[in-house]
Amino acid sequence: MTVQGLPMTVPASDLPARVRIHEVGARDGLQNEKSTVPTEVKAEFVRRLADAGLTTIEATSFVHPKWVPQLADAEELFPQVRELKGVELPVLVPNGRGLDRALSLGATRVAVFASATESFAKANLNRTVDESLAVFAPVVTRARDEGAHVRGYVSMCFGDPWEGAVPLHQVVRVCRALLDMGCDELSLGDTIGVATPGHVLELLSALNEQGVPTNVIGVHFHDTYGQALANTYAALEHGVTTVDASAGGLGGCPYAKSATGNLATEDLVWMLQGLGIETGVDLGRLVATSVWMAEQLGRPSPSRTVRALSHKDQ
Amino acid sequence: MTVQGLPMTVPASDLPARVRIHEVGARDGLQNEKSTVPTEVKAEFVRRLADAGLTTIEATSFVHPKWVPQLADAEELFPQVRELKGVELPVLVPNGRGLDRALSLGATRVAVFASATESFAKANLNRTVDESLAVFAPVVTRARDEGAHVRGYVSMCFGDPWEGAVPLHQVVRVCRALLDMGCDELSLGDTIGVATPGHVLELLSALNEQGVPTNVIGVHFHDTYGQALANTYAALEHGVTTVDASAGGLGGCPYAKSATGNLATEDLVWMLQGLGIETGVDLGRLVATSVWMAEQLGRPSPSRTVRALSHKDQ
């Protein structure tokens, strides 16, 4: 399920030798799907992603089911996948109660999710930015005390649907706060997909200048305007080695209003493989997984690589 | 028809100040559409593209109608648009007969189309690479004698569906031959969309080393595997200032077998505008043009930017 001998591997100078893909399809992808996927299908999805070589697979979210009904089965799902060998399975936790649920099931990696803008903090968290950070601080402390690795998501790092362009200092402030409370890594989200490469580089430099080293920064691009892979390439040139992506581009239907699809893992892997950057992922297996998942969802994958490679098999 | 204040303009260092977009939608786009578009619609499309600020609009092809029935109306179309002010209107010419037809209608820019691989030369031109170059040589000479500007397309510069990865020296040889016979500029085609940024940079460097300056090189990427914009960004970093793109991503339906869509002009303009690189294009008008053209064709545009911005209007 690959093109014979392609992509040709031709490294570019000064890029990382290896990239860790933080696979978000099972969480960020499925939570944005209209249909709710059966728990056994989700578990099989995570297993197939692991079998394709992904080593960091965000499994689910312990947000209250009222807010994210698509992932209301976190308690049932997590035990079905937690024994997978060689795979990290981070889960989202919104507060102390969510952390309790996650830890009690054996989660060893959790993620909190902040916003760089007041508008999105209000819309998504029903709090101000500072109020949400105040909620996260004890969650992060306790997670760390329990030996868990903590990721801090920052939404709306580039543009915001209500506020337009987001000033760098807002993003830097939230990133610093998350690191200061003990987060191990950050994920810079371009939630509405508006970023371009110069903006990405400017934010990374601003973070570095404020003492945030590149090796704790992950990038999380959405392909709403087709910019995700170009932005990723710019981030790699800056030295970023953690890239979020969603198998098959799951999350936000590209045919619907306010399309906000994630960068497709397959499109990312095609580029990284072409650049000779190791990921450990078997592209053919990953495409097969996304084709299978698209069948479960009853709609084609929006990933261009998935479409191109699966059409060749028809 | 743009997101308020977005994309935010943040230049990256060492990129060109201005890029010339070589718009291929009316030719490369429409010749790959299943349905044949009425001549008056094509003329209106070219006019709207010009109105959106595009200054190089490939209008049609003087290939024999038997081979490209979609563009069989070149003689009717060209006179309807040739008076457009401030716009260059290159046309494809396959041989002396095609050149005669083009010149007799007042064309001042023509393009010949070679292949870097024997397999595609045979499939597309029914000749060997050298035989096709021998056909083009007198065409280019005569076009130049008549004062026309000549572009030389080179297909399959990175990968070939029959031959796999394409050796650099094959591409360099064909590029050199086209320049030596008098072509003013080249367009490096990734016809099956398999290239990645390192490969792009390697080819550009190889061409430079063989005396082909960057300022005669245009890049022509297809988005089959989602790589087109990342490859374009890498080419910009190398100093390339001519980029081919197709309004709305016309050409090769993304939902069909062997999808081979062109880079969408809107996705390109979003990135260039974000980077502060001048193009002269009004993104809102261009999106409106592609939405209109999609209505004529009866299917949605595959451009992510067109989809995102037009959905906002619903």
Automatic annotation (TrEMBL), chains A, B:
GO terms for molecular function: hydroxymethylglutaryl-CoA lyase activity. SUPFAM superfamilies: Aldolase. Pfam families: HMGL-like. Transmembrane segments: none annotated. The keyword Metal-binding applies. It is an enzyme of class 4 (lyase). Residues 19-287 form the Pyruvate carboxyltransferase domain. This is Hydroxymethylglutaryl-CoA lyase.
